[in-house]
Amino acid sequence: MIIGLDDTDSRNGMCTTYLAAVLIEKLENYGTVPGYPLLIRLNPSIKYKTRGNAALAITFEPSNDVDTSQVKALVIETVEEMAVFSDENTNPGVVFIEDSREKLCTDLRVFSMQAVQDVLEIEQAEELMGRHGISYQGFKNGRGLIGALAAAGFGLCGLPDFTYELVAYREIENRGTLRKIDEDSVWDAAGTPDTWDTVDYENKSIVFAPHSPDPILFGIRGGSEEAVRHAFSKTRSEPVERHVVYRTNQNTDMHLVRANVRDVQDSRSYILDGIVSKPPKTIEGGHVIFGISDNGAYMDCAAFEPTKGFRNIIRHLRSGDEVTVFGSVNDGTLNLEKIRIRSLDNYVLRNPLCCGKRMKSMGKGQGFRCVRCGAVKKDREVGIVGRKIEPGFYEVPSCARRHLSKPLVRYPELRLLRAHIP
Ligand SMILES: [Zn+2]
Question: Is the model more confident about 12 or about 31?
Answer without folding.
Answer: 31
